[in-house]
Design a protein that fits this description.
It is built from 18 helices and 3 strands. By secondary structure, it is mainly alpha-helical. Among the domains are: 51 residues; 100 residues, Type II secretion system (T2SS), domain F (Receptor-associated Protein, Up-down Bundle); 108 residues, Receptor-associated Protein. A 3-stranded antiparallel β-sheet has the order 2-1-3. It is extended and about 100 Å long.
């Protein structure tokens, strides 16, 4: 792969200049491509140094619009349909590049078209976009080109991307209700701290009521927050931002958060269902496409977002490379249910591992959908505990002294 700076004269007399990345190395080959591509006269052509290619790739990555998995699935489905109907791949890619739909996928199709016209294969063209096209899809395209079933494998890749999108959307939907509930609890607590507690504390001061230690602590905390509200808000915002950055960029912190989520009662159900649906979906697709177990586990390891499962899959992969069975290594990992282990064992013994994993993927997608649908019932006990704890704290710290004050007034009468 080499970048070239070109200046060409088009048929309409307009001079065009720019940079292109081609799969050729010789300047003469690049000149032939540009003349054929633009039907123009090449005025000047300069082969740029190799280090410029990295800068060019970085620039293309930063300037390119993000392509969602849903749009990517639609793109590959349309490409598979046209290839299955006998449309040549260059013509199909031209159609997708000029499509009036999503501009991000049209830009991707344009880049792939330029690469295909320069003589690269579809697999080589997709390899230039690792930030956009998942490795699973790139592997399936390679297998499809090798076996002559590109339309079928791209169709399977589109279905796979749709299922991954479904799992991701369900995961986000599962977090909406807990986020709303705990957000409401936090908002109610801030209302009490900012408005209710100061008013009641002023009443206590005016009446010179002797307050218990718990009430004194709550009043002091409320006074501190109200007196340093901006500082408190700034510290809270910085803490949240710093925590999110550490989770995103620090594997150790991310592992700790994911491990905690895996161990907590409610989040464990969500994390386990989503992760198992994702793992079995990836493995079944890769194995069915002809990718060996070790390479499939390697791709899966890099694709997983959960650090706990990522490390377990890495250890499973190393064990399989040493010659152990997939079932034994998954059992040693200790995070896979017996149901999964039995199905994988049957698949290894009968040579139908991809089919067994496909069955598991469908089953865990169904279970995860059930978890998302019943998330309200699952989280209700936790909600009641948190809300009840805050209610008891407020009653014990604020209302009991009020009752004592009313009782003293009644005695004085």
């Amino acid at each position: 792969m080499r970048c070239f700076y070109y200046r060409i004269l088009l048929a309409n007399g307009v001079t065009r200049r720019g940079v292109c990345k081609l799969s050729v190395v010789q300047t003469t080959s690049a000149q032939m491509y540009l003349e054929k591509r633009w039907r123009a006269v090449v005025l000047s052509l300069v082969s740029l140094p190799k280090w410029f290619t990295s800068l060019y790739d970085a620039y293309c990555t930063l300037s390119r619009r993000a392509v969602s998995h849903a749009d990517l699935a639609e793109f590959f489905r349309n490409l598979a349909v046209m290839l299955g109907g006998g449309v040549p791949i260059l013509s199909a890619m031209e159609e997708l590049a000029t499509d009036d739909g999503d501009s991000a996928t049209s830009a991707l199709a344009g880049d792939l078209l330029e690469s295909l016209r320069s003589g690269a294969s579809l697999t080589e063209s997709l390899e230039r976009h690792p930030d956009v096209v998942p490795e699973t899809v790139r592997n399936m395209a390679r297998i499809g080109e090798t076996s002559g079933t590109l339309d079928t494998t791209l169709g399977d890749a589109a279905e796979h991307l749709n299922r991954v999108v479904g799992i991701t959307q369900d995961s986000k939907r599962a977090l909406i209700y807990p986020g709303f509930v705990f957000g409401a609890i936090i908002a109610a607590s801030m209302f009490w701290i900012y408005y209710v507690v100061p008013n009641i504390s002023d009443l206590f001061r005016q009446m010179r009521v002797e307050l218990p230690a718990l009430t004194t602590s709550v009043v002091a905390f409320a006074d501190y927050v109200n007196g340093h509200f901006l500082l408190f808000a700034l510290i809270l915002a910085v803490t949240i931002a710093l925590g999110l950055l550490l989770i995103k960029h620090n594997p150790r912190v991310r592992y700790g958060v994911h491990k905690l989520a895996y161990q907590l009662p409610v989040s464990r159900v969500i994390v386990r269902s989503a992760s198992l649906a994702f793992i079995t979906e990836y493995l079944s697709l890769l194995l069915a496409s002809g990718v060996n177990v070790v390479h499939s586990l390697d791709v899966l390891q890099r694709s997983l977002g959960n650090e706990v499962y990522r490390r377990k899959i890495a250890s499973v992969r190393l064990g399989v490379m040493r010659g152990n069975s997939l079932t034994d290594e998954m059992r040693v990992a200790g995070i896979f249910p017996g149901f999964v282990l039995r199905m994988v064992s049957v698949g290894e013994q009968t040579g139908s591992l991809d089919k067994q994993l496909a069955y598991l993927a469908a089953e865990y997608r169904r279970r995860f959908e059930h978890v998302v649908a019943s998330i309200g019932e699952i989280i209700q006990p936790v909600t009641m505990l948190v809300a009840g704890g805050l209610f008891i704290l407020m009653v014990a710290s604020l209302f009991l002294p009020v009752y004592q004050l009313i009782g003293q007034v009644g005695i004085l009468r």
